[in-house]
Amino acid sequence: ALQKWECHGDTLLGLKNESLYLAVNDNGVPVISKSNGTKSKWTIHGTLNSICSKPYEGMCLNVSIVN
């Protein structure tokens, strides 16, 4: 199912209308997390700019959840 994502604050990318954020676990694998710590902060590749610092038309992310 397609998920809608939005910026939460300046550096968090999360599911729209939820307190769930895109993060990286200790193995470097992207996960959806309730944590808003440093592993949930995202920058634009090659810059120090927050992922939320530039406007966007829409964002689609493919996230696989493995049980």
Automatic annotation (TrEMBL):
Record-linked InterPro entries: Ricin_B-like_lectins (IPR035992)
Gene3D superfamilies xref list: 2.80.10.50
Highest taxon of source: Eukaryota
Protein name according to UniProt: Uncharacterized protein
Species, as recorded: Cirrhinus mrigala
